[in-house]
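[retry 2/3] NADH-quinone oxidoreductase subunit K: previous attempt timed out, resubmitting with same input.
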Amino acid sequence: MHPVIPYVLAALLFGTGVYGVTVRRNAVLLLMSVELMLGAVNLVLVTADVTLKQHVGQAFALFVIVIAAAEVGLGLAIVLQLFRLRRSIVTDEVGAEREPVAVSEDA
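[retry 2/3] NADH-quinone oxidoreductase subunit K: success.
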């Protein structure tokens, strides 16, 4: 297999993930887009490892998989807490309900 094909596929996956991160308002879809980008990075690392035969890309891919698993766990915990507090997982409303800071005019 020619190494250009996985690189182009990884670029398409990464571009789709970036589009999902910038456009989506749902927190779960946002996490899925980040996972798509991490999967594209894994594809690039493994393809580079196969073509260059240095056996470093697989180790980096393993680290990316571990980071992705930790990101999913932490991200889902944040999404669940956000849903418990607001009954919505729309990311546009995350910082909207803060109380205004009272400024005293005595100073």
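[retry 2/3] NADH-quinone oxidoreductase subunit K: The chain has three helices and no strands.
[retry 2/3] clearing retry counter.
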